[in-house]
C-alpha cells in the first residue's frame, strides 16, 4: 500500500473534545489524529468514539490525512475502538495509529480486524496503519515491525513511554553539570529511521512536551529531519508551523538540489558519468542525495 502522504506535522487532538477537533480541522496540519488513547480519560473513551465518528463524517478536513489513535491491544477498549470507528466513519478515515506495539503480532492483531471490517462494511479504500514505537521491546523489534505489513505507512518514536520503558532517569538533568552529553535520543532515532527507510515507510519524530518552548521544538525537529525523519508530532497547534517549515526543503536546498541534478544529467547526456558543480563532484551517488529534495518539494507544492 504505502501511499505517499504528507506527514510534516501530525497534530494530536483529544477525541473527547468537539471544540479542539473543530479547531484541528481548520488548522494547517498535514495529518490530524483524534486520540482515543492517552488524551482521553478512561471514563470518557466510549463516548469519545461517537464524537470522533461525528467529526470524521461532519467536518470539512480539506486535504488533511484523517486518523484515529485507538487504545493498545492489551486493553479492554481496543476491539470496540476499531469496530465503532470503522462502522461509523470507515469511508472518511485514512489511517489508524496503533500505540505500544512491541512485536509484529501486535500489529497483525489490528490488521486482521481491519481487513475483516473493511470487507464486511464495504469500505471503499484500504485504511493505512501507523505504529508507535514506545516500548523497549518494540524498539528491540523495530526492524521486524517495520517490514511486517503492506498496510504499514509510518513508524513514530514515542518518547514518553519509551523513556519509562527504558528506565531513563531525568532528575539529575536539572543539574547542568550532570546532563547527558549530546542528544539522548540520537541512537533510537537513527535505528527507527533506518528501519523505516529499509522498509520504504515514513519515519515520524514523536512529541515535544513543552509547547511554549518553540526554540527547543525546532531544534529537536531539525535534528530528526537531518537524520531522515519526514515529520514530527504536534501536541499544540502552535507547533504546526514549525514542523511544516522544518520538514519541507528550503529555497536554498531546492536551488542546490536542482543545480546538482541538472549538472549530473548534463554530464550523462554528454557521455560522462560525473561532473563538477560549485567545486563539488556530482555523480550518481550525489543524485541519490539531491533528487529526493526535488521530489519532496514537488509533493509539497513548492515546485511544479
Description:
With 304 residues, this protein is of the alpha/beta class. It contains 12 helices and 10 strands. The chain has an 8-stranded parallel barrel with strand order 1-2-3-4-5-6-7-8, surrounded by 6 helices. It has a two-stranded antiparallel sheet with strand order 9-10. Helix 2 packs parallel to helix 3, helix 3 runs parallel beside helix 4 and helix 11 packs across helix 12. It is globular. 43% of the residues are buried.
Tags for this model:
single chain, 304 residues, alpha/beta, two-stranded antiparallel ribbon, 12 helices
Radius of gyration: 21 Å
Task: Give the SSE string.
Answer: EHEHEHEHEHHEHHEHEHHEEH
The pLDDT mean sits at: 93
Largest sheet, order of strands side by side?
A: 1-2-3-4-5-6-7-8
Write the layout of secondary structure elements.
Layout: E1 9-14, H1 18-25, E2 31-35, H2 45-58, E3 65-69, H3 78-89, E4 95-98, H4 104-121, E5 128-133, H5 136-140, H6 142-146, E6 152-157, H7 159-166, H8 186-199, E7 202-205, H9 214-227, E8 231-234, H10 240-246, H11 251-269, E9 275-277, E10 280-282, H12 284-300
Parallel strand pairs: 1-2, 1-8, 2-3, 3-4, 4-5, 5-6, 6-7, 7-8
Antiparallel strand pairs: 9-10
Question: What's a quick, concise take on this entry?
Answer:
The protein is α/β, with parallel strands linked by helices and 304 residues long. Helix content is 46%, strand content 15%.
